[in-house]
């Protein structure tokens, strides 16, 4: 689902959540203000959250951790809802970056 986000949001989320950049490092890398980087990451997280909530119903424990889920759409029950299109690299500035480190599957 991450790869379905708009490019700026996808870049922000991948670089911070998967590649470990801080939001300050993200702002420097993308050439945007620190507050702009923070907003972009928060917007990406919210869009991804909404995509997940549209797709599935989550049961949470009292701490807010997912303990169970049920799909809401036919595609989820067929295991095709969350399949990503083949997009091995994303463009960030002048370089192409693998969106996920090899340790993440």
Automatic annotation (TrEMBL):
Task: Name its GO BP terms in alphabetical order.
Answer: DNA-templated transcription initiation
Highest taxon in the source lineage: Bacteria
MF (Gene Ontology)? DNA binding; sigma factor activity
- InterPro entries the UniProt entry points to: RNA_pol_sigma70_r4_t2 (IPR013249), RNA_pol_sigma_r3/r4-like (IPR013324), WH-like_DNA-bd_sf (IPR036388)
Domain RNA polymerase sigma factor 70 region 4 type: where?
A: 2-48
Report the protein name in the record: RNA polymerase sigma factor 70 region 4 type 2 domain-containing protein
Q: Which organism is it from?
A: Reticulibacter mediterranei
């Amino acid at each position: 689902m991450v790869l379905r986000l708009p490019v700026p949001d996808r870049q922000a989320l991948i670089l911070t959540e998967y590649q470990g950049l801080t939001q300050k490092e993200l702002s420097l890398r993308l050439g945007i203000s620190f507050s702009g980087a923070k907003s972009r990451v928060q917007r990406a997280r919210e869009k991804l959250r909404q995509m997940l909530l549209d797709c599935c119903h989550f049961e949470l424990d009292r701490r807010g951790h997912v303990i169970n889920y049920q799909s809401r759409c036919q595609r989820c029950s067929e295991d095709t809802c969350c399949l990503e299109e083949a997009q091995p690299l994303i463009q960030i500035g002048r370089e192409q970056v693998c969106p996920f480190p090899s340790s993440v599957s």
